[in-house]
Amino acid sequence: MRTSRGAWALAGLLAGFAGLAASYCVAMVLTTRDDPVSAVAELVIRLTPGPAVERAIQLVGRHDKTLLVVTVLVLLALLFAMAGLLARRAWWAAIAVYAGLALVGAVAVGSQRGASPVDAVALVVGFFTWLACLALLIAPLTRAEGSAGSEHRGDPGAAAHTRRGFLLRVGVVGALGVTAGAVGRAVGLGRRQVEEARRLLRLPGVTVPRVPAGARVDVPDMTPWLTPADDFYRIDTAVYVPAIRPQDWQLRIHGLVDREIVLDYQQLIARQLTEAWVTICCVSNDVGGPLIGNAWWSGVRIADLLREAGVQDSADAVLQTSDDGWTCGTPLGVLTDDRDAMLAVAMNGEPLPVDHGFPVRTIVPGLYGYVSACKWVVDLRVTRFADISAYWTDRGWSELGPVKISSRIDVPRDYTDIAATGARVAGVAWAQHTGIERVEVNVDGGDWQPAGLGRVPSDDTWVQWAVTLDLKPGERVLRVRATGKDGTVQTGEVHGAVPDGATGWHTIHVKATD
Ligand SMILES: Nc1nc2c(c(=O)[nH]1)N[C@H]1C(S)=C(S)[C@@H](COP(=O)(O)O)O[C@H]1N2
Ligand SMILES: [Mo]
């Protein structure tokens, strides 16, 4: 019995769109960025020469993006159908087409600003959905082809059986695709509403950041002193980033207080705002690692709110809870002293990015994020450490998480060649809320040589440092260590991040050449 080419093309087409719908759904649920198809459309725009884009926009007006997405979808439809037709002769050819498309999607998604490994999940799910749906759809067709020429040849009963089986599967795959698409759309819509609300927010009192004069050391390729939100490290346990519209946000302050306080977003931002440069970092950052960033935060002082609530004498902690259920226990003292721990509403002069806790998150100078920097914060319970446990302390991390003094070499990069004479070496050092007194570098374990320091506005930020070295040609090992304003010298003793932060000197290998 022969199957029609149309059936194979339909199988490829349906499997393709089911896979696309699955990846779209996963992208909407897991990330706040574009789905793979929009990412491809944007990649096309980025790769097209500017004048051509302008001409295209003139031609089609403001619908350029929609048109492009539709074009991409039509092209995909053709390729999907082709994959179906190819599957009739050689299943691997169909897989190759899908793999090729997934690769294009991966490049497009990966080249977006702030792309993270999570973004790849959508593509992987999409790819395997393709394979599964294609296998499901072509099974009855393959069976029918296999029996062509056998005794069933021209058997109308067998043909009807094949058609029924195929149509049933078409229905299943179609329904799956439509459901995934609908779920993705619903979730994406909610998310877009939050993004829209965020875009339209005007926050009186929030000022744009101006990097203090002298904070940057003048070394090519040096890390920026202000970390842009898109480049800011992101750490959280949220599989599904909370999408909270400001009008839906509320904070409850309760527990060991005289007067419980409930605040909504309007009430929060109507209060006096405080602004500060604060560097936050992650306890799981390895020595020399990237999990640290410095931003200009604007928010409301937590100490004032706690004073209004009237904290009772027996309290020594505040259990913070996020909208997604994540918790952290923060020492009461750091929230009430003069370090201006805040409920931040803006980062670098803009409303908080959704990934960084929109609409409200906590920022406490001097503590690792896991015990202080609660994103999407909705509840502060004044309490006692003896009476609580929190997300990371339940998993073996230390109850208290003061930041350990540390430093990092950013220029040159590890295992690169540098000029032996006048080599510029630079990086960052931090001891938030203590301050950096001194940074020193040594070559091959020799004497510690002092580096010059950038000027910082407070002790709550990282400090850039730089030094010019004359090195003996050959392979050299560079190390850095910092000393705090309290006299603490960064220890060279190597320790992993668990349970309260890694220690050791950041060490890099370079080849000095004449
Ligand atoms: N709701 C929530 N807040 C959270 C976390 C989390 O998993 N969930 N992780 C914390 C940790 S471990 C760190 S280091 C900081 C990171 O903040 P960032 O993602 O804005 O850089 O957020 C903290 N706040
Ligand atoms: Mo962290």
> Strand-residue fraction?
15-25%
How would you write the strand order of the largest sheet?
A: 2-1-10-5-6
Q: How many helical elements?
A: 10
Order of helices and strands: HHHHHHHEEHEEHEEHEEEEEEEEEEEEE
The major beta sheet can be summarized as: 5 strands, mixed
Oligomer: single chain
Helix content: 25-40%
Distance between the termini: 76 Å
Structure description:
With 514 residues, the protein is an alpha+beta fold. The protein folds into three domains: 5-188, no CATH class; 229-395, Sulfite Oxidase, Chain A, domain 2; 406-513, Immunoglobulin-like. 36% of the residues lie in helices and 22% in strands. The chain has helices spanning 5-30, 36-47, 50-60, 64-89, 91-110, 118-146, 156-200, 265-269, 302-309, 332-336; strands at residues 250-255, 261-264, 274-281, 292-301, 317-322, 327-331, 342-347, 350-351, 361-363, 377-383, 406-411, 416-419, 423-430, 436-443, 449-450, 452-453, 463-469, 474-484, 506-513. A hairpin with a 2-residue loop joins strand 7 and strand 8.
Any chance you could write out the topology, listing elements then pairs?
Blueprint: H1 5-30, H2 36-47, H3 50-60, H4 64-89, H5 91-110, H6 118-146, H7 156-200, E1 250-255, E2 261-264, H8 265-269, E3 274-281, E4 292-301, H9 302-309, E5 317-322, E6 327-331, H10 332-336, E7 342-347, E8 350-351, E9 361-363, E10 377-383, E11 406-411, E12 416-419, E13 423-430, E14 436-443, E15 449-450, E16 452-453, E17 463-469, E18 474-484, E19 506-513
Parallel strand pairs: 1-10, 12-19
Antiparallel strand pairs: 1-2, 3-4, 4-7, 5-6, 5-10, 7-8, 7-9, 11-13, 13-17, 14-15, 14-18, 16-17, 18-19
The protein binds ligand MTE and molybdenum atom.
